[in-house]
Amino acid sequence: MDLLGNPLTRLFAQVIVIVTVSRLLGLAMRRIGQPMVIAEVTAGIMLGPSLLGWLAPEVSAALFPTDSLKILQMLAQIGLVLFMFLVGCELDPRLLRGRTHTSVAISHTSIVCPFLLGVGLAWFIHDDYADPKVRFSAFALFMGAAMSITAFPVLARILAERRLLRTRVGAITIACAAVDDVTAWCILAFVVAVSRATGLDGAIRTTLLAVSYVLVMLWLVRPLVARMAARVAGPEGIAQNAVAAVLVLVFLSSWATELIGIHALFGAFLFGAVLPKEGGFARALVDKMEDLVLIVFLPLFFVFSGLRTEIRLIDSPDAVGVCLVIIAVACAGKFGGSALAARLTGLGWREASALGILMNTRGLMELVVLNIGLDLGVISPTVFSMMVMMALVTTFATSPLVRWIYPPERMAQDLVDVGEPAGEPTPAQPPAAAIEYSVMVCVSHEQAGPGLATMGAALARDAASVRLDAVHLVPATGRGGTAMVGRGPGDSEGDDVLAPAIARAAELGVEARALSFVSDDPARDICELAVARDADLVLLGGHKPVLSQTLLGGVVHDVMKDCPCTVGVLVDLGLGPIRQVLVPYLGSAHDRVALALAQRLMQAHGAKVTVLHVVRHGRGEEMPDPSRSGARALVNAVFIEESGQVNMKFVEHRSPVEAALEESGRGYDLVIVGVGKDWGLGEPLLGIGLQPERLMTESPAPLLVVRGPDIAPRRRLARATARTS
User: Fold this and answer.
1) Comparing 285 with 412, which gets the higher pLDDT?
2) For the chain, what are the domain ranges?
């Protein structure tokens, strides 16, 4: 049976192979900290003549025969049009708020420098590597434009995965990339117009039509689409008819720009850019379309690009040398121009260098530009292959270089420092000398915020004595950059989640600082932020994970294991004013941490504390319990000044958990208990609990489970911070 006997079965086979190879390589690339685009470009090269066509030419000829590439190209072009529409949807003017001068200066410098270097490089290689029929002006302009590109979606993905969107350097970089993207595409549109035109009159006519088209989109189409968006967007989402209307308009816009002569992709990009970003209309469209475009259509484009990339064309020492020169010129122009401009606008050398490295990211957008050049015949297959290698090298180098120049410890500190005026504290940041206790509450959803804020504020003697940070981590979805840019500076999603916590803290007289960002490893980020903020206590919500049948599993388990400060997990059953506190006590180190928190509640608000000391009986194999006098002496040592106000209860019971549950039902506002297997709260294996955690699931009163600090992680992180500062 011929499995590839007709065009349809062959297309199915091509899509299956392309998506499978891309996803498998994506898993490998993520393990080494590389974005998905690297995997997809590599998959394209592997499935093309550079590898598969070389190792197994028969398989390559059967799977990707020449007559099937037209169908693949058309599908890839449709997918690319839709992707450019999504990229346009990313361009939110709020990214530029307060950074217009800096971002415009840096982005334009990062375009002019590589553009000029690209033109100079074109003069150097034109005679040997350009088609003799191609005019030097078209070749030079195209090389300049290709050198100027920054991959906005890939850059957004890297910034999000590196948790840099909320840092100063990340905020400026994403704003610069937004300006850079628009400017570079305008330049490219002009270059395409010049390349397609038969003479000066044709180039001028195309340029005038393009300018007129842009004005129509901005002054006529934009308000009409905004009106439509206001009518069709709602809490239930967008109706299919509205999505169909948007897609028709995307294709009409692409058709118009193709007829004008500036390529269909520019029309899709511009229509996405004029869509209203308020009200969630653009975000809802992205959510509906993005998965199909990124998982199926984009890999088709990458493989089609890979099929056109022949690394074997770079087969001579001269060709290898030219390829290295192209990479060097690309890095010098983009990195050098961006870093120098950033330094001159006031950034430090470390921040400026990180920004330059990030702006040097090419990725997908470079491939889009190169394919346009190859389709127009402006660049030869050899130059195309060299430029693809340049795009791969610059994109691959971004993550490790940023990690080296901007280590996690420095990033964590900048996360909490961004936006604070230099030299003076914000209202939510009392002077360091006045702070005697620092609490970081980690809010996963709106409903959890008020209880955690209540618990954090209850530990404050007065508003100036405590620092309260409210943190919301947005899980990284593993999707493209379009899903992440909106969750950077200016986005309201994280602020909306934190708003109830901030409001509750304000009601209780404590000002809290809000911080939210995308995180692909929440436990690690919580621990790093705890060190950066010198937190005394990290508060988490006791929410049962989906897959792990334990309240102390998943992220909670990892934070408890690795965080170098006290960690508390709150089971909020309507926590209100804390007047009566119960501390079940068996004498462990974590029980003593529970006593210390109870003491702080007593000192701050006069809460009455009852210590329930359980003496086991009926099980001869158990270790002997300390005497009553010994237990009282230990409690008195914790409550030095308030020892006379602490109520000690001794109870004999064969089950400490049962004893604690019985006592907690007698009108207590809060129960504080240390982790430990005696309380059925042992640390789970691999984050999966094997004990019933009855105290957390059956307690009739709000419950705070605490684990004392481990000094070793703090020392390790402190040494790492010292090495990088």
Assistant:
1) 285
2) 7-406, 423-565, 580-708
**What does the alpha-carbon distance between residue 53 and residue 47 come to, in Å, rounded to a whole number?**
7
Class of CATH domain 580-708:
alpha beta
Specify the 3-state DSSP secondary structure of 629.
helix
Query: Of the spans 280-289, 575-584, 617-626, 684-693, which averages the highest pLDDT?
Result: 575-584
Residues 6+ positions from 468 with CB-CB distance below 8 Å: 428, 439, 440, 441, 453, 456, 457, 460, 505, 510, 511, 512, 513
* Cα–Cα dist 352/119, whole Å: 25
Please check whether residue 700 is in contact with residue 664, taking contact to mean a CB–CB distance below 8 angstroms. Answer: yes
- pLDDT greater than 60 at residue 130: yes
Angle between helices 281-292 and 69-90 (to 10 degrees): 150
What is the overall mean pLDDT for the chain? Answer: 78
**CATH of segment(s) 7-406:** 1.20.1530.20
Q: How many CA atoms lie within 13 A of 193 on its CB side?
A: 23
Residue 526, pLDDT score: 86
Is pLDDT of 255 > 90?
yes
Nearest-5° angle of CA 684, CA 539, CA 576?
115
Q: Helices marked H in 349-380 — which ranges?
A: 349-359, 363-376
Predicted local confidence at residue 386, as pLDDT: 93
What six digits make up the tokens of 521? 């490893």
How many angstroms separate the Cα of 400 from the Cα of each of 28, 188, 621? 15, 30, 55
pLDDT of residue 712: 43
Residue type at 679 in one-letter notation: W
State which fold the 423-565 domain adopts: Rossmann fold (3.40.50)
Question: In angstroms, rounded to a whole number, what is the distance separating the alpha carbons of residues 151 and 38?
Answer: 12
Residue pair 180/110 in contact by the 8 Å Cβ criterion: yes
Question: Does residue 434 register a pLDDT over 70?
Answer: no
Is the pLDDT confidence value at 703 over 50?
yes
HEC letters along 473-536: EEECCCCCHHHCHHHCCCCCHHHHHHHHHHHHHHHCCCCEEEEEEEECCHHHHHHHHHHHCCCC
**Residues contacting residue 681 through CB under 8 Å, at least 6 positions apart:** 552, 673, 675, 691, 693, 695, 696, 705
Region class of 534: left (phi > 0), else alpha (psi between -120 and 50), else beta: left
| Sheet hosting strand 512-519, strand order edge to edge | 512-519, 466-475, 437-442, 537-541, 566-571, 703-707, 670-674, 580-585, 608-615, 647-652
Q: Which pLDDT tens digit goes with each residue over 82-123?
A: 988 887 886 666 655 555 567 778 888 888 999 999 999 999
For residues 454 and 470, the answer to whether their CB atoms sit within 8 Å is: no
| Domains 423-565 and 580-708 belong to one CATH topology | yes
How far apart are alpha carbons 540 and 567 in whole angstroms? 8
Q: Are 330 and 322 in contact (CB under 8 A)?
A: no
N- to C-terminal Cα separation, the chain: 66
- The encoded tokens of residue 125 equal 């290689």
Q: What is the pLDDT of residues 319-377, one digit of tens each?
A: 999 999 999 999 999 999 999 998 888 888 888 898 899 898 887 778 888 888 888 88
Looking at residue 481, its pLDDT comes to: 44
Instruction: Report the alpha-carbon distance of residue 41 to residue 31 in Å, rounded.
Output: 17
